Amino acid sequence: MDFDYRLAAWAPRVLSIARIAIALTLLQHPAAKFFGIPYVPFFDNLPISSIYMVAGAIELIAGIAFLVGFYTRAAAFVLSGHLAFVYFIGHAPKGFYPLLNGGESAVVFCFVFLYFAFAGGGPWSLDGVRSPEGADTMPQGTDRAHAA
Amino acid sequence: MNIDRIAAACQPYLLSLFRFVTGLLFFQFGVAKLFKFPAVPMFEDVTPLSLFGIAGMFELVLGGMLMLGLFTRPAAFILSGEMAFAYFIEHFPNSFFPLLNEGTLAIEFCFACLYLASAGGGPLSLDALLRARTTRQPETPSQSRR
């Protein structure tokens, strides 16, 4: 029980760590699309108005905001909806099971961002620096005393 | 500001939803590896005691526990470690970039589970049910009188 409380005290900071890791894995996609880092042959010569590039622009802008924790909730909400579109446009037509349509990663991203849209960016974020209350992830319940 | 407060009030329930979906996706991998459903060509030759088979058992059992929210913290901690191993054994040798070594999913799982290991399963979980039962019983006066 006591161990649970000690882990719960770390939860807001681990939330921030997870936010940064997830943001970096997402930002690879626009980086590959726009800057060729890393080089992915599939993204070669895509017209700027193609759905991949528009998706890349959303990922780049919202992804950077999410990385630094600037308006985390809004950025995460946009990204969650974005990944839902990605799943249903890009993956769902190929099969019902995520394991077969290659959409596993999009599903996890979608629900991770949905959670962040509610939980906020945690203490290690620009939101947390601007107003600690805005980044508060445990507003109710008894855990608050242990999370401080 | 107000919307932040509304979002924060819903956060514990979203944590439970997030835990369930993460568990479900792990469960899917476990079922595909051990019971071949859905049939994935890559997992066709997986035997139960191979590296993939043992990973599948972890995913089946612990993924199921995450879905139920039973012992969420230890289950998520073990799965987080398993995904770290999966990334460095299976994906990392192929390339430095997760986009090229196809380890993006393993990274997402790893950090999602790391967070669940510290945050717990939320209010909609068997953990919460068990905790409510164990803490309430000695406090209820009607029961202590009996």
What does this structure look like?
The complex is a heterodimer of chains A (148) and B (146). With 148 residues, chain A is an all-alpha fold. Chain A is built from seven helices and no strands. In chain A, helix 2 (51-68) packs antiparallel against helix 3 (72-91) and helix 3 packs antiparallel against helix 5. The longest helix of chain A is centred in the N-terminal third of the chain and has 34 residues, at 2-35. Helix content of chain B is 76%, strand content 0%. Mean pLDDT of chain B is 89; it is low at 139-146. The radius of gyration of chain B is 19 Å and the shape is globular. Chains A and B meet through helix 1, helix 4 and helix 5 of A and helix 1, helix 4 and helix 5 of B.
Q: What is this structure's SSE topology?
A:
The complex is a heterodimer of chains A (148) and B (146).
Chain A: H1 2-35, H2 51-68, H3 72-91, H4 98-101, H5 104-119, H6 126-130, H7 143-147
Helix pairs in contact in A: 1-2, 2-3, 3-5
Chain B: H1 2-35, H2 51-68, H3 72-91, H4 98-101, H5 104-119, H6 126-139, H7 141-145
Helix pairs in contact in B: 1-2, 2-3, 3-5
